[in-house]
Design a protein that fits this description.
heterotrimer, A: 325 residues, alpha/beta, eight-stranded mixed beta sheet, four-stranded antiparallel beta sheet, 12 helices, 23% strand, globular, C: mainly alpha, MetI-like fold, 11 helices, 70% helix
Amino acid sequence: MTQPLLKVEDLRIALAGDGVTHNAVENVSFEIGRGEAFGLVGESGCGKSISALAVMGLLKRPLSVASGRIVLDGREIQDASPAEWRNLRGSKIGMIFQEPMTALNPLSPVGRQIAEMFVLHEGAGWTEAMDRAEEALRQVHVPSPERRIKDFPHQLSGGMRQRVMIAIALACGPDLLIADEPTTALDVTVQAEIIDLMRELCAAKGTAILMISHDLGLVANMCRRVAVMYAGRIVESRPADAIFATPSHPYTQGLVDSLPRLGERSRRGRQKLREITGVVPAISSYPSGCRFNPRCPAATEVCREVAPGISPLPDDGLVRCHHHG
Amino acid sequence: MLSVLTRRLLNVVPTLLSVIALVFLLFSVLPGSFMSSMGEDGRTTIDPAVMERMKKEMGLDDPLPTRFAKYVASVAVGDFGKSFRTREPVTKLIGQRIWPSLKLVFAAMAFAIAIGVTLGFFAALKPGSPVDTISMVGAISGLSLSQFWFGLMLMYLFALKLKWLPSFGYGDGGLSHLILPAVALGVGPMALLARTTRAAVLDVLNADFVRTARSKGMSERLVVKWHVLRNALVLVITIVGLQFGSLMGQAVVVEKLFAWPGVGSLMVDSVFQRDIPAVQGCILMIVLFFLAINTLVDIAYSVIDPRIRYR
Amino acid sequence: MKLPLKLPRLKGGTSLWVGGALVGLAITVAIAAPLIAHTDPVLDANLMNAEIPPDAEYWFGTDAQGRDIYSRIVYGSRISLTVGVVSQILNSLIGVTLGLTAGYWGGWWDDVVSGLTNLMLAIPSLVFALAIMAILGPGLVSLLVALGLTAWSYSCRVARAQVLSLKSQGYIQAARILGYGDLRIMFTQVLPNVLGPLIVIATLGMGSAILSEAALSFLGLGIRPPFPSWGSMLSEARDQITTAPWLSVFPGLAIFLTVLGLNLLGDGLRDILDPQSKTRRS
């Protein structure tokens, strides 16, 4: 088997509180191959975004990587020095954030914000960098880029701003693009455009994608493999098509059942959308045993007491549930 | 740019008019009017005939609305009336005082910005560090000082004990006379600026676009230089404007303490001499300065922040 | 996804306690003044004891008339605290009334109030107070009026903003549909929501009022000698700064510590009562 581009092993992220330290994320492991699209799905607060920030080395107090390994291209990076991180960020890993409204500096023209990448990583002068920024804007299909490079973020629409973010993240041809809820803040029609754009550019450049979203449908549509996170742990990791066909973890089943799908009615008959009862627990009050047990329809005594291990599934999948394997 | 200026000036007019109205009413309607107090203070006794003549001369017998209309009309053409005491135009009295006042205010503000913004900035870069703690304890102490006591202590230490600097007066207008009053006046704004700058920089450091900048692989130094400074400046500049604008008024006590010949000490002297036109003139001058500074700040805003320029 | 990036603020706690202790001390001294003062602050003048430096008997020394500075400072706390408390009650009443009604009724009344607020901002409050003192003449009552009428713009703005925010959330309309009267809505629905920020503003405002009182008394327009206001004591002390510096040091320290206490307390309270606000003073 060839070496994966990114390998996260047994990642644990600690949240330092007043005297107590909680594990915001634990036992998180996944691999992304070169050029592969991988999805991390879960409700807000499940730890998917901070896992991504850990891969970028951007965790801030009171969060920190407590243990585990992050291996990029065969190199362990979880303990990299600030200078090493600076070389990785932007040139090896690019990142897009959720809020295109606030993720760009409001006082700086967008062209300059793209051009910074070439100045930082490729030693370009500002004139050259601005020319390349214009080209980068053209590649993300921003109309009349020669005028747009002088625009300020507030003069662009949300979709255009997210295109600028993509141009920044991909400017120096990184191996991995991390997209943290890239379309959540956008209109539905624009969402599809942005997803297509990411897919097109990454396919052309062979960039792998780590897609983070609460939207299982969106992720499954874009990614080859999907991991579902719940309360700081990965509960199921499967090829995307399998996860829809035969969701194994009760939480995943809940997510799948809560999705409206076209064509589904005719196949399964008229059916109501179902919701998962209960709420996501707070980090400080994770239940013992399987963390999903208070909301799980199939919970038994063992679920309340023992944390389930990982069991393999026949289709190259993994599930963390007592009732499987 | 021009439109910002015009709109701003249009905003200033009603405020200015209401200040004029207030200043006029305060001294015309409320008890303790000039004429009655002049007789009351015991030092001066005026021949009733002279009093009548003066009243007529100053138009004090006209009905209130007429007097108000006349007052507004004369203020509009830059005539603040004649001083009751010296019989000179108030504008001339203020004219003699405005330059020392401006010098003091600008010196105090320069001191406040140089020290306050610097301290606040470095405190924010290392929150919780000794630099931060000392700056912030210093800042809250600075806010709690009474200017004139601080001035008095400075005077005692640097002028009377160490004899490094002159204790009071304007001297020949040189720097040595300026330092102590400027520091005494500037310490409050300095403390406030240290606090606001710290809050502003911390605020910006937590902004999403700073995370974006870090995700680009930028060093902290460049993050601050390229993305934090300008954004923090926008937040700091409001406070600078408000402080700067009100400083001429705040200077009243310091000017009196250091016998500085500014508008503030003119106002205090005129209050004691019941020289109503001069008091009114000083208040108007102080308000005009406030409005002028704030207009300038608004323009500065529109230069720095494109969101305002295009709105 | 929102990260819990804000560290719990340790400093809020410290400043709350240090500030509370200083303010508590000032209040205790003011209440217990007759018990802890050594002499009568005004009457016990004795020229034989003039200008004695601080010693075991006269802790803070004596002034030119031989009065005990310690006792005068003890009694002076009554004036400072009275001025602080009364002026802030007045300011809060004016500010909240104007702010609530302006935000609630809107329209021309809102324009009038915001015009007034702009007016108050444009005239530095010390200058405004000075003008009022000039008209009313020196004395405690004039001081209370002058300082109580000139610093309400903060509470006004906060109250108005709160009404507007509740309006936009539909609370007020809901209350109206339930048949509540305007006044009832303002006092039962809106007022409780502004109390926190208001207490913070009043605490910090008390500090400024004490400083203004000292400044006005120093200029000779506030409390006149021989009554022991810290400001008027400084005004008398100024001429003797070379011969008797202690006359200037101690009243100034009293002002500083009291105002520092109020500012620290206000900061600490803000962290508890009004967490979302930034530095609201200017």
